[in-house]
Amino acid sequence: MKKQCSKCGEWKELEEFNNDKKSKDGKGWECKECRSIRSVLYYRNNKDIIKTKTKNYYVKNKQKCTRRENDRYHQNKKEISIKRKIHRRENKEKINYQDKLYYQNNKIKKLISCKKYKTNNREKVNQWSNEYMKKNIKYLSDWYVLNRITNQFDIKRSQITPQMIQIKRKQIMVHRALKQFKEVINE
Ligand SMILES: [Zn+2]
C-alpha cells in the first residue's frame, strides 16, 4: 500500500512513513525523508535555543540522563565500538598525538604526586595539568631546548644528540610543572 506525502507530494510505501498513533492509518503526514530534512533545518535555525534547552534539561535531570545514556550504550555496544574503530582509523595521527600528550601529562602528574593533595583536589589538578600541557608544549621547540643546553653546559651544538634534547625537554617540563604546581597548591 502506498501513501502520498503531504510535504513532497510523492507516493511512497507505508514503511517510509513514521508511526503516528493520532492519525487514521497510524502513519505520519510526511515521509521519513521529509521529516529528517525538516528536523535538520529546524535544528540549524534554532541551534542556540536547542542547546540551552538541552543543557538546562540535562542539569535538571542529571541522573535520568546518565541512566539513559548508559542504557543506550549497552544497547548499541557493538555499533558504538565499530564507530570508534572507524574514527580511530580515520584520525590515527591526531589520536596518536593525543595519546602521546596524555601519556606525558600523566607522567608529570605521577612525578608531582603529592598523593593526599591529588585525591582531595583531583579535578583541580587534572584541569591544571591539562591547561599546563596545552600552554607549554609548543614553546619547547628543539631550537629552544638546544639553546638551553648550550647555555647551561660547556658543550658544542654539534655534540648535542636528539636524545639529549629529549631529556632536557622533559627536565624543563618537569621543572616548570613543579613550579606551577606549587603555585596551585598555594592558591
Ligand atoms: Zn515527503
Descriptive report:
- It is a single chain.
- This protein has nine helices and four strands; from the N terminus they run E-E-E-E-H-H-H-H-H-H-H-H-H.
- With 187 residues, the chain is mainly alpha-helical.
- It has two domains: 2-55, no CATH class; 92-186, no CATH class.
- The longest helix is centred in the last third of the chain and has 25 residues, at 162-186.
- The termini are far apart.
Q: Uncertain segments of ≥5 residues (pLDDT<50)?
A: none
Helix content: over 70%
The ligands bound in this entry are:
zinc ion
Mean pLDDT, nearest integer? 82
Strand content: 5-15%
Total domain units: 2
* Tally of alpha and pi helices: 9
Q: Based on helices, strands and strand pairing, what is the structural class?
A: mainly alpha
**Terminal-residue CA separation:** 72 Å
Quaternary structure state of the chains depicted:
single chain
Please summarize the sheet with the most strands: 2 strands, antiparallel
Number-wise, the strands total: 4
* SSE order: EEEEHHHHHHHHH
Radius of gyration: 28 Å
Instruction: Report the principal-axis shape.
Output: elongated
Biggest sheet, spatial arrangement of strands: 1-2
